[in-house]
Amino acid sequence: xxxSGHSRVSADACSGPSARRDGAxxxxxxxxQGRPLRKxxxxxxxTLLPTLSVTLPDxxxxxxxxxxxxxxxxxxxxxxxxxxxxxxxxxxxxxSVSILGCEVFVNGVASLLRHVQDxxxxxxxVFNQDAHHLLxxxxxxxxxxxxxxxxxxxxxxxxIARRFVQEQSIRRLAQLMQKGGDLRVAxxxxxxxxxxxxxMARQPWFDWTATTARDWLFRPDDWxxxxxxxxxxxxxxxxxxxxxxxxxxxxx
Length: 252
Description:
10 helices, alpha/beta
């Protein structure tokens, strides 16, 4: 969730270690800032964010133990966390889990920082640049759970290539995630839902966990509603909640 709750990151740049930080060019994320920040939130950007920010190495994989300052027995990642309410809820309910959040929208980052301060959360780190840089730097088999909540649907036909859910990005996520790891995707856009179902049905690395319609039409108890999801439902758009489990490592 970057602008208005949507993740805008480059799908074709998420192709793995070959898409290194020096050569990658952020193209598809949304605005970096909306309305001017209130003084308190601007102060958090200046004071708290530097203590939580993830800095990528020039070469090699990111050392997650170093990032979190502790042994990372389980790491979760949310790509595009919007205002941060979902990420903060997960961090508060699972304090032993180390959680990475990626978001370029400064107002959303400031909102998450307020949650971190108010709830005294210690297990969150933030990467506030385009997500494909982070995906290229993360070590393989390092992520246990990954959230992609209300990504930008890019509904116009000429923008289809900009959607995050693409074969290359799915493959990269499968490389990053541990066997048995959970991928959660939420959307309120019917075209994007159909697109995601088709793209995920083509690939061999994730199994859809739904066994009944209820499994994807209703949020699980440990999947709190986001601000954008609530807005979608108020405006009459049905949200869907897809769950996938990583079953195998991509070859090569």
